Acetoin utilization protein AcuC
Amino acid sequence: MSESVWVVWDDALTSYDFGPGHPMAPIRVELTMALARELGVLDGVELTGCAAATDDELALVHHRDYIEAVKAVSARGEPDLRRGLGPGDTPAFRGVHEASALIAGATLTAARAVWTGRAEHAVNIAGGLHHAMPGAASGFCVYNDPGVAIAWLLSQGAERVAYVDVDVHHGDGVQYMFEHDPRVLTISLHETPTSLFPGTGFPTETGAEGTAVNVALPVGCGDGGWLRAFHAVVPPLLREFAPEVLVTQHGCDSHALDPLAHLMLSIDGQRTAYAVLHSLAHETAGGRWIATGGGGYELVQVVPRAWTHLIAEAAGDPVEPTTPTPARWREFATEKTGEVPPLTMTDGRSPEFYDFTDGYDPSDAVDRSIVATRKAVFPLHGLDPLP
């Protein structure tokens, strides 16, 4: 078991709701917490509530006039297209400020617990809203809760914070907020920006002293290629950077069933990545680990299983992949969505990969992605870009 592990949750976190038909439906987090409860995963953690982030806390990364604009939209429910709130990806709705500030507050609660030593690991599955910019909403994200948490850690005296983002979309908002601050290392593994929103995240985006790291993976990349790229980039950089705290974003929209993207990972591949990040938190950051959710739009088959695995991994008591999903949870999922839910906690895969240090193939698209990233940033960290 890990030491003290907090899971931050309040039923009001489901109020972050862009309405019927929007991909980011709050049922995904509701089903996750229900599955974690039914499997006994929450028995090994401290379940704690949260308060909304204050204006001063949000202003650690967001412009004051933007916060006021979101409040105005929240009160009226009317769009503000200048601020990215309106028809489209991030619709305006009454209560949007309160719902968004609560998610930021939940991730701040996790950060406080870890920084003060009250918890070794802390998880907010409702968080990970990594696209929000200082002065505008973007990509389903209104306030950037990982950004707020990182900025708060810096304000408390943290000198090195690492952020690893495994969402299929580039973690653009967090990168933008810290790309010129050498105290923050951001690493994002995502589908190539030539085929997917937000169109950023090329390896040449390196920030201050190589502290912005981007691994842009080809369409169709599956477990083996993704894990090869992850291991070729993330562990060496975290070991060299030696963060005081590791913050991770676990968008599970890299799954083959996700309707908005084009990678081909399985639940089993994602679960493997969670385990490696857990291990790296202990190896490189003294065990201080703050984990959030993120994207993920296959609401029944993927998100609840992926993030239940994440919570269980953080708790130090992983769920055996072949474990059946509880009958009561399946009934609840069907009642809520009308869908037939998965029967087990696995996709039946055994993720394997060939380590990049054994050599690379210039004709392979994944290897070309790896080499592009390592050449762009490894020398800036005193690391050899080639195996």
